[in-house]
Write a structure and sequence with these properties.
The protein is of the alpha/beta class. It has two domains: about 80 residues, Winged helix-like DNA-binding domain superfamily/Winged helix DNA-binding domain (Arc Repressor Mutant, subunit A); about 120 residues, Rhodanese-like domain (Oxidized Rhodanese, domain 1), CATH 3.40.250.10. It is about 50% helix and about 15% strand. It contains ten helices and nine strands. β7, α9 and β8 form a beta-alpha-beta unit. α2 packs across α5 and α3 crosses α4. The radius of gyration is 20 Å and the shape is elongated. It starts with a helix and ends with a strand.
Length: about 220
């Protein structure tokens, strides 16, 4: 029978194994994408801007650590989080990093913090206004993520297709764009595109996880 010290060493070895599996910027990005919905290797590679081969290698490491699972449909392999707790841990990691690492504040300030691009939003008021058409809530994530879960009354226009729909907006409309949460760049890029066209647009820092954590409902398939 192992003694107390040996048991503790073995436990911390397992904890470290999990931490090591996540100790890669690209693997963290893949987890972020999978927090939105399940995706194929090909889609994950495209959205994370790495090759399919490298994506597969990263996913295998996450799978061995039991952070992700797979299912096969025809020739396609879909990856999903092994448990919702994986996403909760990932979000906690982001919050901890934001509270401890000053460099994160500088990165955010360089890209996100144009004061009038990001304004405090009363979530219930936003939904009430969207319901009666006073504001357009714009989901600029890929279509698969929107189909999995989205804010009530949100309209789906992925960032890659936004320029094709600019003529559908009026300068008199208020547009609130959102994506995957406070560190996602899609909504900020959407706001920049919309504003260059003279449209009234701001970024909502919430993603689906932040929205639901605040006790707000989402539309899920």
């Amino acid at each position: 029978m192992p003694n107390a010290r040996e048991t503790k060493n073995r436990l911390y070895e397992q904890f470290a194994h999990l931490a090591k599996a996540m100790a890669s910027p690209k693997r963290l990005e893949l987890l972020d994408l999978l927090c939105q919905c399940e995706k194929t290797v090909e889609v994950l590679a495209e959205q994370s801007f790495i090759s399919i081969a490298n994506t597969s290698r990263h996913l295998q490491i996450l799978r061995v650590a039991r952070l992700v699972e797979t299912r096969k449909v025809g020739v396609h392999v879909f990856y999903k989080l092994a448990d919702e707790k994986v996403c909760e841990f990932f979000r906690s990691l982001l919050l901890l990093a934001n509270s401890r690492l000053a460099e994160i504040d500088r990165i955010i300030a360089d890209f996100f913090d144009t004061p009038d691009n990001l304004q405090p939003v009363n979530r219930k008021k936003l939904i009430s206004r969207a319901k009666v058409g006073e504001v357009v809530v714009l989901d600029v994530r890929p279509e698969d993520e929107y189909q999995t879960a989205h804010l009530p009354y949100a309209r789906s226009i992925p960032l890659s297709k936004l320029r094709e729909h600019l003529q559908e907006f009026s300068p008199d409309q208020e547009i609130v764009a959102y994506c995957r949460g406070p560190y996602c760049v899609l909504a900020q890029e959407a706001v920049s595109i919309l504003r260059k066209e003279g449209l009234n647009a701001v970024r909502l820092s919430d993603g689906i996880a932040e929205w639901t954590k605040a006790g707000m409902k989402v539309i899920s398939k």
